Amino acid sequence: QVQLVESGGGLVQAGDSLRLSCAASGRTISPYSMGWFRQAPGKEREFIAFISWSGGNTYYADFVKGRFTISRDNAKNTVYLQCNSLKPEDTAVYYCAARPGSLLRIGPQEYSYWGQGTQVTVSS
Q1: CA 8 to CA 22: how far, in whole Å?
Q2: Residues 6+ apart with CB under 8 A from 107
Q3: How many CB atoms lie within 10 A of CB 103?
Q4: Contact of 101 with 33, CB cutoff 8 Å
Q5: Strand-pair partners of 19
Q6: Quick one: residue 88, left, alpha or beta (phi over 0 = left, psi -120 to 50 = alpha)?
């Protein structure tokens, strides 16, 4: 079992930055690819970013390309999401998730382990 805990969310103004962290426990995340997702009220959970187990491959949803950066530190068992140039439409609960293997997957159903989420609110 992998337990994931997100942190770093908060209330910011449009144009500000946040760094979200996802700390894992229970076992090393080294064999797992990781994803970040978000869910706004009344909307489905949507994919934001993916990083392979080695960190060598990343993939982003179009709406965050150039603004968000996913990274990982396997030694610290932690995954990060650097969020720059935040917009009000980025307001949502942000989740990290883990799946075994290295293949790119963007569907939430493809991920085995989830954190409880961290709220990001961007005011205009």
Answers
A1: 9
A2: 47
A3: 11
A4: yes
A5: 82
A6: alpha
- The beta strands (E) that lie in 27-117 are given as 32-39, 46-51, 58-60, 68-73, 78-83, 92-100, 113-114
| pLDDT tens digit sequence for 20-40 | 999 999 999 999 999 999 999
SS3 category, 92: strand
Mean pLDDT over each residue of the chain, to the nearest integer = 96
pLDDT per residue as tens digits for the range 57-91: 999 999 999 999 999 999 999 999 999 999 999 99
| C-alpha closest to that of 34 among 66, 4, 75 | 4
Q: Are 16 and 120 in contact (CB under 8 A)?
A: no
* Residue range 39-48, pLDDT digits in tens: 999 999 999 9
